[in-house]
UniProtKB/TrEMBL annotation:
Residues annotated as domain Helicase C-terminal: 464-627
Domain spans labelled Helicase ATP-binding: 284-445
One matching Pfam family: RecG_wedge
CDD domains named among the record's database cross-references: DEXHc_RecG (cd17992), RecG_wedge_OBF (cd04488)
Highest rank taxon of the organism: Bacteria
Protein keywords: ATP-binding, DNA damage, DNA repair, DNA-binding, Helicase, Hydrolase, Nucleotide-binding
GO aspect biological process, one term: DNA repair
InterPro entries from the UniProt entry: DEAD/DEAH_box_helicase_dom, Helicase_ATP-bd, Helicase_C-like, NA-bd_OB-fold, P-loop_NTPase, RecG/Mfd, RecG_dom3_C, RecG_wedge
Protein name listed in UniProt: Probable DNA 3'-5' helicase RecG
NCBIfam families: PRK10917.1-2
MF terms (GO), sorted A to Z: ATP binding; DNA binding; DNA helicase activity; hydrolase activity
Presence of keyword DNA repair: yes
């Protein structure tokens, strides 16, 4: 249960004085539904009204506060609604026209009669040689001058929501803020650094920036809130991890003979990196605690092989193993890889897909339920489709970069006592690994199997499309295959992007090659059929949009063309490139970029393409990606399941994150159920930052 003292923060926005349902709905759009959301949505800018020039000296286009006297009123001619109402004013240096569209004439006339002295604040512009201010933000009599704020915060708005309304709501919300028991100890700041404010002060200061510096992530208020937010994130993950360790898993001792047999069945030896990762996994599986481990490694680094041996470890212990892929085609591809190995080892393997029907499906499921099928391959739906296992001991989840903590928790619950191995081909920088997968142990494969040739990577402007087309024609003539990737076309996308179907048609026209195309409007079955045709070698070119669609292993594909490469994230580009260079032929990746109307390629885009040309190390690329794009994009999309922060900035707050990580580990070591006085304060923190899941689970189970 959420502590009662927090109710004031979790009340609906309508409970604020002056905020009705209409305003609340608008505020909800930009901040969120509850008071806490408003409080924790910081201003994005500020308006400085302290610039007080004379009218004649005012810098045009800048917000200024001037004191003037009303000299005349010029209302628009009757019936001419489009002509504004003007109030002419002046000081001893010049004239300033105040402009009002659709004004209430009587109101202006009675309120600001000729001769009135006024302090007005707003942007001064030039209109046909005359200085004017359209709809001043403030018009005060000089005796009310002190009510003019020197600096005002600016918030993100939406249609129908004005800044004054927003600020009034924030002010009302701030009146609810009361001190909370401090959860932070020891202080984060090093010697000599100014102490950070407490939570309540930090929230107040957040909404009262005095200068640009106060808006930066390094301002004391924002650092404090970032520390709170990152601590809540790290604490939640540590608690989840701790709780999992409390639930009995079981020891899977494995069968050395089966493992040896597996190695003997391979046409190659595992690399040192694979052996190391496998050793870490096997150690986890052999221990009675439950394994939840992340296996990271670039596309083609040999994760699937490592997973296979983990599955053998389970099978050798007399329990079943399941391997889950994100799409049916990838599940089938895994089957194709593992079937010969299983045959050699005399292990029975089934692949369960949604498309299986009738008696065949029933027979497969019976085999799994009765336990004489030890190895099951399927899609992520495997566990939700109420497939019954006799005794599931290991779940391997492949390519799960769309998996968040919550999904992991549900998997963990459905899998009963099974160990979990999550494989991701997205190398993740430490900061992201900590915040997104902090509840898991991590193994990395940083070395590729021997014999891989580097992929020659070139960036070319779209204007050289013809050259690219003839190059792929030549490659196809040699018997090579080509991937051609177009960016996803989102609805309402103003940019003229080449869609998959158009490109497939123009490629067919220009090259006469056999083109296969997959696009978003196809059903999963249709997509799979097309991809399978390409994988069989029955098409020369596969035109597609996403990583998953080209996720199949086609060693014969030697060229990857990426159109509008400037629109993809680094990590995505790297993933795509990883689809070629898998065979023994030299391969290349062509990054086609478009510079719009003859403009220069943006700085970031250029840096991104350069990084890609310079290295093939996914971890180096991931760090660069994070630095270039900010954490929001580093995994490609918003649905990547990664933690999102209001204040935590993984480049500006690296030190804060490390602190939070240590601190969380420490807390869980000493107070795993948050029973102490400080523990109670920390529960509050978890709720404040939306980690209810972790807080609720403290007692249950
Ligand atoms: P990932 O799952 O990381 O993308 P895979 O396990 O699919 O990588 O391996 C990619 C390719 O490399 C496969 O064709 C696989 O057979 C091969 N491979 C894996 N491990 C090795 C190894 N140690 N030596 C040589 N080839 C390997
Ligand atoms: Mg794989």
């Amino acid at each position: 249960m959420r502590p009662a003292e927090l109710n004031r923060y979790f009340a609906d926005l309508t409970s604020l004085p002056g905020v009705g349902p209409k305003t609340a709905a608008l505020l909800q759009k930009v901040a969120g539904p509850r008071i806490i959301d408003l409080l924790l949505t910081g201003p994005t800018g500020l308006i400085d009204r302290s610039y007080r020039p004379k009218v004649g000296e005012a810098i045009l286009g800048r917000v200024a506060t001037v004191t003037v006297t009303v000299t005349a009123h010029t209302p628009p001619p009757t019936g001419r609604r489009l002509i504004p109402y003007r109030i002419l004013t002046a000081d001893d240096t010049g004239y300033l026209t105040l402009v009002f569209f659709r004004a209430k004439r009587e109101w202006l006339e009675t309120r600001y009669p000729v001769g009135t002295s006024l302090t007005v604040s707003g942007t001064i512009d030039d209109y046909g040689g005359a200085r004017q201010m359209t709809h001043p933000d403030y018009m005060l009599r000089p005796d009310h001058d002190e009510t003019l704020p020197e600096v005002e915060p600016v918030y993100p708005l939406t249609a129908g929501l004005t800044l004054p309304t927003y600020r009034r709501a924030v002010a009302a919300a701030l009146r609810r803020v009361a001190p909370l028991a401090e959860w932070r100890a020891p202080p984060l700041e090093g010697d000599g650094a100014p102490p950070l404010p407490d939570w309540a002060d930090a929230v107040r200061t957040l909404h009262a920036p005095q200068s640009e510096r106060d808006l930066s992530p390094s301002s004391p208020a924002r650092r404090r809130l970032a520390a709170d937010e990152l601590l809540s994130n790290q604490l939640a993950l540590s608690l989840i991890r701790h709780r999992r360790q409390q639930i009995a898993g079981r020891a899977l001792p494995g069968d050395p003979t089966l493992m040896e047999g597996g190695r003997a069945a391979l046409p190659f030896r595992l690399t040192a990196a694979q052996d190391q990762a496998l050793a870490e996994i096997v150690a986890d599986m052999q221990s009675p605690a439950r394994m939840v481990r992340l296996l990271q490694g670039d596309v083609g680094s040999g994760k699937t092989m490592v997973a296979f041996f983990a599955l053998l470890q389970a099978i050798g212990s007399g329990v079943q193993g399941a391997l889950m892929a994100p799409t049916e085609i990838l599940a089938l591809q895994h089957e194709e890889t593992l079937r010969p190995l299983c045959d050699r080892l005399g292990l029975s393997l089934v692949t369960l897909l949604g498309r299986d029907k009738g008696p065949e499906r029933a027979a497969k499921r019976r085999g799994v339920a009765e336990g004489y099928v030890p190895l099951v391959i399927g899609t992520h739906a495997l566990l939700s489709e109420d497939v019954v296992f006799r005794d599931l001991g290991l779940i391997v989840v492949d390519e799960q970069h769309r998996f968040g903590v919550t999904q992991r928790l549900s998997l963990q619950e459905k899998g009963r006592r099974a160990d979990i191995l999550v494989m991701t081909a997205t190398p993740i920088p430490r900061s992201l690994a900590l915040t997104t997968y902090g509840d898991m142990s991590v193994s990395q494969i940083r070395e590729k199997p021997p014999g891989r040739k580097p992929v020659a990577t070139r960036a070319l402007p779209t204007t050289r499309l013809d050259e690219v087309m003839s190059a792929i024609g030549r490659a196809a003539a040699r018997g090579d295959q080509i991937y051609w990737v177009c960016p996803l076309v989102e609805e309402n996308d103003q940019l003229a992007l080449t869609s998959v179907t158009e490109r497939a048609a123009s490629l067919a026209d220009a090259t006469g090659l056999d083109i296969a195309a997959v696009h978003g409007r196809m059903s999963p079955q249709e997509k799979d059929a097309v991809v399978a045709r390409f994988a069989r070698g029955d098409a020369d070119v596969l035109v597609a949009t996403t990583v998953i669609e080209v996720g199949v292993n086609t060693p014969n594909a030697t060229i990857m063309v990426i159109e509008h490469a400037e629109r993809f994230g680094l990590a995505q580009l790297h993933q795509l490139r990883g689809r070629v260079g898998r065979g023994d032929k030299p391969s290349s990746c062509l990054l086609l970029y478009s510079t719009g109307d003859g403009e220069q390629l943006g700085k970031t885009a250029k840096a991104r393409l350069n990084t890609l040309r310079e290295t093939e190390d996914g971890f180096v690329i991931a760090e660069a990606d994070l630095a270039l794009r900010g954490p929001g994009d580093a995994l490609g999309t918003a649905q990547s399941g990664q933690a999102r922060f209001r204040f935590g900035d993984l480049s500006a707050h690296k030190d804060v994150l490390e602190w939070a990580h240590q601190e969380a580990a420490d807390i869980v070591r000493h107070d795993p159920y948050l029973d102490t006085k400080r523990g109670a304060a920390l529960r509050t923190l978890l709720y404040l930052f939306g980690q209810d899941e972790a807080a609720r689970r403290l007692r249950s189970g």
